[in-house]
Write a structure and sequence with these properties.
The structure holds two protein chains of two kinds.
Chain A lengths: L2 H12 L5 H13 L1 H19 L9 H16 L3 H8 L4 E7 L11 E2 L5 E4 L4 E9 L3 E9 L4 E3 L7 E8 L2 E11 L4 E10 L2 E12 L5 H4 L2 E4 L1
Helix pairs in contact in A: 1-2, 1-3, 2-3
Chain B lengths: L15 H5 L3 H12 L2 H15 L3 H6 L3 H20 L8 H11 L6 H14 L4 H12 L4 H7 L4 H23 L2 H4 L1
The chains are: A alpha/beta, B mainly alpha.
Chain lengths: ~220, ~180
């Protein structure tokens, strides 16, 4: 091997891409040639230094903040996503609480869904799917449901407030709520998520009908941002 | 173990966050090296996420997500670079190297710190294609096979480009900014 050949194979040697035979030729030449020994040593030092080049770590909290921001921006632009989603849920009622960023740090009056009320039948239980669309996963959240006096949750007769300690996945979380109408009237159910003293609530108008619920008429989507 | 009263999303699909979060630290490091400073790196990552979120369904179908994300980041960087043509120089990099050297005195001799500082400066003399290749391969250790996918370029071409880039770096350093013998 001569010096030109060595220079041509220097990078392949450093990257471990030479055959055993080529490696031996190169190493033999390096032992005999001071100039090539210096070149190899210099190239090796540069490669090591490149691998050592520091980069600052990601700022704490940046990842979740950036994801939340992207999710929020997207949330503002995707009108009608709940409409498509509700179709997939067949004959159930969909109510969505969108938690785009941080929960407000003080309790506010619940926002009211500005859509027609959810119609519940007195004749048969009806599943209302509450969809909690959260930007990032939430641990140790408290979900509470305050029922009006004209409906009850099947299996919890007479209980007007139910709360759960739970975690929420990032994205859509579905809580199927089997409701039964007990009195013909109009009122509202309040669903809240609370975490670390911060809370967001939605008031969902409920109308209890004496008639059997007509599945098509009960499809509704409420979205509170 | 997580306990949730909620049913999982339809079809057990991973959320956008679940898909991208594990890759963000590495992507951020790349973004920092492309853009040269922390603020621009964060902007680049933020832009990437905003562009990707409407493509969540598409992301779910990608088998090897990391190279896919690196490719998207690289393209975004090149688009921005062409628009701004700003030289990615971080005025605070010296301070960052010194801080790292103080924290790891056994790994970073003063001579090595000097070489890294000169390398950082020398990298700015490469064209953007060469610089990105050295960043991804020599600094961040992506293999040429991975880069073939990320950069849509055959391995042979990448090898030649890499050899030219390294030769240029060596020449720049040899021309007087650092003594390689001292740095050994």
């Amino acid at each position: 091997m001569n010096c030109t050949q060595l220079h041509n194979q220097l990078d392949d040697y450093l990257d471990g891409e030479l055959s055993a035979e080529q490696r031996t030729h190169l190493e033999t030449h390096v032992k005999e040639c001071e100039s090539c020994r210096t070149a190899l040593s210099g190239a090796r030092v540069i490669q090591e230094a490149l691998r050592q080049m520091p980069a600052p770590p990601m700022r704490p909290g940046f990842a979740s903040q950036a994801i939340k921001h992207a999710v929020n921006q997207h949330g503002h632009h995707r009108r009608g996503f709940i409409a498509g989603f509700s179709t997939a849920l067949a004959a159930s009622v969909v109510v969505a609480l969108f938690v785009g960023g941080f929960l407000p740090n003080m309790e506010r009056s619940p926002q009211t869904a500005a859509t027609p009320p959810v119609i519940i039948s007195m004749q048969q239980p009806q599943t209302v799917n509450l969809v909690f669309d959260v930007a990032t996963a939430m641990e140790n959240a408290t979900l509470s449901i305050i029922l009006p006096d004209n409906v009850e949750i099947v299996g919890f007769p007479g209980q007007q407030e139910i709360a759960w300690q739970t975690s929420l996945y990032a994205g859509r979380n579905i809580l199927p709520l089997p409701l039964k109408g007990i009195m013909h009237s109009s009122s509202a159910l309040v669903a809240s998520i609370e975490q670390g003293g911060r809370k967001k609530s939605i008031r969902i108008p409920i109308q209890v009908s004496r008639d059997k619920a007509a599945p098509r008429a009960e499809l509704a989507a409420h979205r509170i941002s | 173990m997580k306990i949730s009263i909620f049913s999982r999303r339809r079809g057990q699909d991973p959320s956008f966050e679940e898909m991208v979060a594990p890759h963000l630290e590495r992507l951020h490091r790349l973004a920092y090296r492309y853009s040269g400073n922390q603020a621009d790196a964060e902007d680049l990552i933020q832009d990437l996420l905003v562009k990707l979120i409407p493509r969540t369904e598409e992301l779910r179908k990608v088998e090897q997500l990391h190279p896919w994300l690196v490719k998207a980041l690289y393209r975004l960087h090149i688009d921005r670079f062409r628009k701004t043509s700003r030289s990615p120089v971080d005025a605070g990099y010296d301070e960052h190297i010194n801080h790292r050297a103080e924290a790891n005195p056994n790994d970073m001799s003063p001579a090595r710190v000097g070489l890294i500082r000169d390398l950082h400066a020398a990298l700015q003399y490469l064209n953007e294609e060469q610089r990105a290749l050295v960043i991804m391969h020599d600094i961040e250790s992506y293999t040429l096979t991975e880069l073939e996918v990320i950069l849509d370029t055959p391995v042979g071409t990448l090898k030649s480009r890499l050899h030219r880039s390294r030769a240029k770096l060596r020449k720049l350093l040899k021309e007087g900014t650092v003594s390689l013998q001292q740095a050994c």
